[in-house]
């Protein structure tokens, strides 16, 4: 799959991403409250995406054992990524990560956000703040002429300086004509390593940050990733295009 997208391609990828941006800003905050199940959240997500003429692209993605059964990944507290929506009920003080992929007219959007459920403890507030900020720091490094390793190095350095750890078993990636494309965009690494960043690349930059160890386990469902020590994890993601040498966030509302 080509790494380089035309300006027309980027505009179409942006349209797909804007659906997720509206979902996260205008729709979900009304529902992310104690007492709602992750299954109910998924139904809201799927209904909204379809109302916008798009497809919830997570449905049917092939996995270790079975295809992913839902339209979005919903991961609570110790769940890092790929949580399957179900009967789990959100409680006051939880944190919940929503990772959504849309497909609109053959172009893919991909973005993730971690919401607080009501009032959360100070450690969780810091976790969300640092994870979101690390994403922005990574995006700042996505300029033409830099290397992919510059993104990961910046994310890792900032996260570890603030006392947290980055998940190393999962990474960002190219996106646009498919959900996952080259290159892999790790959240750790060394400056000056990896392929050179060029105009026309579209990258999903997505730090996954843990309170404790960076190590993870996979639950018996073959999908849900949890922290090995049971401590909390947060996840923030944007799809970013490199245009005129600079990063343009496609999954953020204008």
Automatic annotation (TrEMBL):
Return one GO MF term: metalloaminopeptidase activity
Q: Where does a divalent metal cation 2 bind?
A: 110, 173, 206, 237
The EC number(s) attached to this protein equal 3.4.11.18
Cofactor needs = Co(2+); Zn(2+); Mn(2+); Fe(2+)
The protein's annotated catalytic reaction(s) are: Release of N-terminal amino acids, preferentially methionine, from peptides and arylamides
Which keywords does this chain's UniProt record carry? Aminopeptidase, Hydrolase, Metal-binding, Protease
How it assembles, according to the record, is:
Monomer.
Annotated protein name in UniProt: Methionine aminopeptidase
Q: Which organism is it from?
A: Fusobacterium ulcerans 12-1B
